[in-house]
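Consider the tokenized backbone below.
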């Protein structure tokens, strides 16, 4: 084996080894791909309270995110639903417990005010067809 063959063999081994390490780092493990783990991170964030009003942010586009929010019970709350190029049925939002039903604009912000007395238990929102939903747990 001459010198240049040995060097290129070494480079090839390094490249193969590197790409195997790269692939195993980016692979989904146990069916958990990057998207659900991002959702879990968002779920962990407590809603912000501004001037005594709790703001719960929900994004509506191809479903609702985060799917579950843990909020504080018994304080005035605003559910802020954002659409951004939302042309699927998640823009047709229903919150049965609040008798709320509205067709949201494809892009915009909708504030749904909830009095302190209604900020309790579990509040469920869903699209008008019932395929997508989200849940707010007041604790
Ligand atoms: Cu739907």
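A designed sequence for it:
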């Amino acid at each position: 084996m001459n010198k240049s063959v040995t060097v290129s063999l070494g480079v090839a081994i390094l490249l193969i080894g590197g790409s195997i390490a790269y692939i195993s780092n980016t692979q989904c493990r146990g069916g958990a791909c990057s998207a659900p783990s991002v959702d879990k991170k968002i779920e962990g964030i407590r809603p912000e309270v501004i001037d005594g009003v709790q703001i719960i942010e929900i994004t509506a586009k191809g479903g609702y995110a985060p799917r579950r929010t843990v909020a504080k019970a018994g304080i005035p709350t605003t559910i802020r639903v954002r659409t951004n190029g939302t042309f699927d049925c998640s823009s047709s939002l229903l919150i049965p417990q609040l008798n709320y039903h509205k067709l949201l604009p494809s892009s915009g912000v909708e504030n749904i005010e909830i009095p302190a007395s209604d900020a309790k238990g579990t509040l469920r929102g869903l699209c008008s067809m019932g395929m997508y939903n989200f849940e707010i747990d007041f604790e």
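The chain has two domains: 1-31, 34-138.
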